[in-house]
Design a protein that fits this description.
Largest sheet: 8 strands, mixed
CATH class: Alpha Beta
Distance between the termini: 34 Å
CATH architecture: 3-Layer(aba) Sandwich
Number of helices: 13
CATH topology: Rossmann fold
Structural class: alpha/beta
Number of strands: 8
Strand content: 15-25%
Shape: globular
Strand order of the largest sheet: 1-2-4-3-5-6-7-8
């Protein structure tokens, strides 16, 4: 169940720090124009998240927060959803609610992110890919479909590149993969500047969550339960999260050199108004993968699975049905 009491709110300190990030982010002006065109509301899109069966478990000594919904492991398709940063698996609640009637579902906060425990050794593409292998083995998941935005995308690609697998298909997007990358200003700060990584740590999880909303959503307005969960879940973890971005350039080289070998059917999704990793990265990735299709989500920002979650649900349904017999 999603905890709905003792909510943690975005406070004045968070808002001031997020406002400063906006001031030094050139992309904010056109994002704000898009929001004005959308009559971006002040009220949340959903009053509260749909319930998800959240639980904490330890797998090979790594404590994670996850959810699962199993209806028929033999005859129904299995979908594994990997978390994005700085969201948590709570962000999947409307997607979960729509899919749970027809599919076996698993999701977890990546180690070091969200509600899962953090350690410095977790903060690499390679560890996350290896942990996905461990997670699938723990639950005896063999033939499945991966849904992996943002940091989850790097985890999924590291897994399929470096480990034997029986993945039927992937749906990935708005994350790192192909070189050369086109990185708007906020990504450059996190990846290439030790000074700015320290500043994000000092600002804390609340400013991070508020800034992510400002930069990543042009339609969807998170509700107070989502915001509370994101902020509480990342409290004390921002420093380790920044280590993932510090290691990003070298880790990306390992992914890039192996893209041509990935034969798994892959749907690439990207937001038209992407301000964290430009949509040209999706186009580049689509050119490099031998068995992929690109779908640009018009009028969406970085978090396409939120900004147009009804369309994202349809994407998952159609893609899984198309590839379930492979």
């Amino acid at each position: 169940m999603i905890e709905q009491d003792k909510l943690t709110k975005i406070n004045l300190y968070d808002r001031l720090n997020a406002a400063f990030v906006s001031l030094i982010t050139p992309e904010m002006s056109w994002l704000n124009n898009i929001r004005r065109q959308n009559s971006y509301p002040t009220q949340p899109t959903l009053k509260k998240p749909f319930d998800m069966p959240l639980e904490f478990i330890s797998i090979d000594g790594v404590k994670i927060r996850m959810a699962k919904s199993i209806i028929d492991p033999q005859n129904k398709e299995t979908i594994v959803l990997l978390s994005a940063f700085p969201h948590t698996i709570i962000a999947y609640s409307p997607i979960w609610e729509a899919l749970k009637k027809d599919y076996n579902l698993y999701t977890y906060d990546l180690p070091g992110f969200g509600g899962s425990e953090t350690k410095s050794e977790y903060m690499s593409f390679a560890f996350q890919g290896g942990f996905l292998k461990t997670f699938l083995a723990h639950f005896d998941i063999e033939d499945s479909h991966l849904v992996a935005p943002d940091v989850g995308m790097a985890s999924a690609l590291s897994y399929v590149i470096n480990h034997e697998n029986k993945i039927k298909s992937m749906m990935i997007g708005d994350g790192p993969a192909a070189l050369p990358t086109i990185e708007p200003s906020i990504m450059k700060k996190m990846v290439y500047s030790g000074f700015w990584r320290v500043m994000f740590v000092i600002a804390g999880s609340g400013a991070l969550i508020e800034s992510a909303k400002n930069l990543g959503n042009v339609q969807y307005v998170p509700n107070e339960y989502e915001i509370s969960d994101y902020k509480k879940s990342h409290k004390g973890k921002v420093a380790n999260c920044m280590q993932w971005f510090k290691k990003y350039p070298e880790a990306l080289k390992d992914i890039d050199r192996s893209l041509k070998d990935i034969q798994i059917p892959t749907k690439i999704f990207w937001g038209e108004h992407e301000a964290i990793l430009d949509k040209k990265n999706g186009e580049n990735l689509n050119d490099r993968l031998p068995n992929s299709k690109l779908e640009i989500f018009e009028n969406c920002g970085h978090f396409v699975y939120q900004d147009d979650y009804p369309r994202f649900i349809r994407l998952i349904q159609s893609w899984v049905e198309k590839h379930k017999s492979l």
